[in-house]
Amino acid sequence: MIDVKQLKYFVTIAEEGQITKAAQKLHIAQPPLSQQLKQLEEELGVPLFDRKAKKMELTAPGKAFYEKAKRLLAQLDDAVAEVKEIEEGTAGTLSIGCVKSCFYYLAQAIRHFHEQAPNVTFHLREGDTFSICQLLYERHIDIGIVRLPIDSADYDVIRLPGERYVGVLPAQWKTGQTALCMRDFADWPLLLLHRVHGAGQYERVIEECRRHGFEPNVLCECPDATILLSLVAQGLGATIVPQSTVALFRLPGIKVLEIIDSSMTAEAAAILDRQRYLPKSARTFLDVLQTVAARAAGEQHEER
């Protein structure tokens, strides 16, 4: 009968590519590990590795078994975590991935959450929406904070309140304006946020420009909001970003103006793997995040 220990041994050998390295990682001697692998292959009736190569490579059956074994071990880890956190949920590490244009929400939420659960530590990852979705799929993070739209088939999506877009110009441009119209951007080079893969804010801004009767002059596309704002500060062009983005990354050399005739709304969401157990600390953090986002949306509304 195959047991959990054999699955762990097999997965480690597959990932390390050598019995010796796997034994070192598992802190056991090499002969017992080789024996466990032999017993597993006898139990299954198929060779799991090609031993002719310098590095142990998975056979076709081995590859299939590796994917299943890794998934089973992950599910077991989730079950153990769920049992342990039924009572508390106030310790451990919370892994969060966030797009840079949503860092304002994240920073505020972490500050408030830390006051409630000071023993919870954080592991943060940054990327565009596509990258954050990949990190969640590969189980590197517990929660993703992304810009919509996304393909939501694989995720539970918790929408955050929408926010307006603003225009960001170089401070050195002496336009004399206190607010902008979309047609103003027809005369300026634009620096726009653009995902590595998929459609998002870039397509939304382009569509809004066309709705106002012009084709924008896009000088630069970039998934990183801070890089775009730095380029604006250097006088290369203007950009259109969610208001909360410049609330956090308010660089010298830029000026932020309201766009009075735009109907664009920047939409963000927290996303979760619907097949995965979510620890109590993560559920509490989501409550805090939604409260922070709602408060920020209310403050924006009052400013109008």
TrEMBL record:
UniProt cross-references to InterPro entries, sorted A to Z: LysR_HTH_N (IPR000847), LysR_subst-bd (IPR005119), WH-like_DNA-bd_sf (IPR036388), WH_DNA-bd_sf (IPR036390)
Q: Does the keyword Glycosyltransferase apply?
A: no
GO cellular component labels: protein-DNA complex
HTH lysR-type domain ranges (all copies)? 2-59
Q: Which superkingdom does the taxonomy of this entry point to?
A: Bacteria
Q: SUPFAM superfamilies, from UniProt?
A: Periplasmic binding protein-like II, Winged helix' DNA-binding domain
Under what name is this protein listed?
A: Transcriptional regulator, LysR family
Q: What is the lineage of its organism?
A: Bacteria, Bacillati, Bacillota, Bacilli, Bacillales
